[in-house]
Design brief:
The chain is an all-alpha fold. The longest helix is centred in the middle third of the chain and has 23 residues. Its EC number is 2.5.1.32. InterPro entries: Isoprenoid_synthase_dom_sf, Squ/phyt_synthse, Squalene/phytoene_synthase_CS, Trans_IPPS_bact-type, Trans_IPPS_HH.
Length: about 280
């Protein structure tokens, strides 16, 4: 395998998410490189819908190439994926196809009425990533771990939805379920006007509670992973959950601000988690 191809996947991950890159950088090879490939492909899928003018392929072209992966060429992602499936033969292709199905939904389904609808969407675009990562992060096929991986992905997607309310509105999308808005007396008109008031804050707080519950479920079986994999998962979860605190610190103005976790805060989370895992390793040894 040409190392430059895997390096290109890593660079795409660094560019797309420094948090995820830092979290999964603690993994040994080849698990680490496999995560880079999975992230890179998911990033390309996402860009094909959200930023089609700058994407190398349309979502339909991606699906066609993926369905004929052995013959696909013209981009570094195809030999990288062939290496991924060859190196981790227990990895299934179904989650990748479902991921693309979820992204396709963004082209036609742009407003959600219920939490159940939103949960289904979050599974397709993010829960599937948990399924992709499972065979890479551990050697057994634990159903409990699979369920937790899906839950963590759903929680992370809910964080994305909270953080990106304004950005998504500008793209003509509303992921915040109408039933949640109506439950707190917040109107579509207020949303479109970007009004941040106590009703909107209550909407975001309900979604925050929902996200944290998925995070809790997502970490239930993290102790059953190899130590480095468990550490990576907890780091990724802590970095993402911290975005919710950043939203609160920004006064819930997700219309005009993109809340982020500072490098200093990430470092503190990193050190806190690594120290705890170092204690576990010492106890095991």
């Amino acid at each position: 395998m040409d190392e430059r191809i895997l390096q290109q996947c890593e660079e795409l991950m660094k560019k797309g998410s420094t948090s995820f890159h830092k979290a999964f950088d603690v993994l040994p090879s080849p698990r680490r490189e496999a995560v880079h490939v999975i992230y890179a492909f998911c990033r390309i899928i996402d860009d094909s819908v959200d930023e089609p003018e700058g994407a190398p392929y349309s979502i339909h072209e991606l699906r066609e190439h993926f369905m004929n992966l052995e013959q696909a060429d013209g981009h570094f992602i195809w030999p990288a994926l062939r290496w991924l499936f060859s190196s981790f033969p227990q990895l299934q292709r179904e989650p990748f196809l479902l991921q693309m199905e979820g992204q396709l939904r963004d082209l036609t389904f742009t407003a959600y009425d219920t939490m159940e609808q939103l949960k289904d969407y979050c599974y397709l675009v993010a829960g599937t990533v948990g399924e992709m990562l499972l065979p890479v992060l551990r050697d057994d096929q634990s159903e409990a771990a699979r369920t937790s991986g899906i839950a963590l992905g759903i929680g992370m997607q809910l964080v994305n939805i909270i953080r990106d309310v304004g950005e998504d509105l500008r793209r003509g999308r509303r992921y915040v379920p109408l039933e949640v808005m109506e439950g707190h007396g917040y109107s579509q008109e207020e949303l479109e006007n970007g009004e941040v008031n106590h009703r909107f804050t209550a909407v975001i707080q309900e979604l925050r509670t929902e996200a944290l519950d998925w995070f809790r479920r997502g970490l239930e079986h993290v102790h059953t992973y190899p130590l480095e994999s468990g550490l990576a998962i907890e780091l990724a979860a802590s970095f993402y959950a911290a975005i919710l605190d950043a939203v609160e610190a920004d006064g819930y103005d997700v219309f005009r601000k993109r809340s982020y976790v500072s490098d200093e805060a990430k470092l503190q989370l990193f050190q806190r988690t690594v120290v705890r895992y170092a204690g576990v390793r010492t106890a095991v040894v």
